[in-house]
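Notes from the 1:1 (GR / supervisor)

We went over the backlog. Supervisor wanted to see one worked example end to end before approving the batch request, so GR pasted a single chain during the call. The sequence is below; no edits were made to it. Supervisor asked that the structure be written out right there so they could see what the output format looks like.
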Amino acid sequence: MAELELVIREAEPQDAKSLIDFLNQVGQESDYMTLDDAGILMTEEQMSSFIQHQAASDNQIYLIALLDDAIAGLVSITADFHERIRHIGQVFIVVKRAFWNQGLGKFLLEEAIDWAENSGVIRRLELTVQVRNERAVHLYQAFGFEIEGVQKRAYLKEGKFLDVYLMGKLID
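Structure output shown during the call:
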């Protein structure tokens, strides 16, 4: 089997359409995400603007993983501009189903944490993950994220409420 070339880089405005297509696809592939059949609900212009905003910020980043030039995963850290909380980064990570359990999520998370540690701004990372997503919980814990709480009825799937863990990692 041929090996694929992996490139992890910051998203660029010209990636907007590919990112929308990717997010719409993974939203249908996984019921661990808040995305559903409605999709990302962003136009190319809105996505391009979002990417530019993150790129211009010193406390945000949007990284994509390309395998042979196709988006296979992404990780982003978004943060507020208000001085009192701009040090807190919200982590969002997703990998296309075809690449689950192959270490891509680990690579993306490593890159995001490394960026946060070197940002000079981010001092705390936060994320939410469904309690039932044991593989993801294990991955986050392996990188030093701790379960800080449980949000009850945080997610609705087929008429059933699901809980999510609130997880955090201090960057020192």
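Supervisor's comment: The CA atoms of residues 31 and 157 lie 8 Å apart.
Batch request approved.
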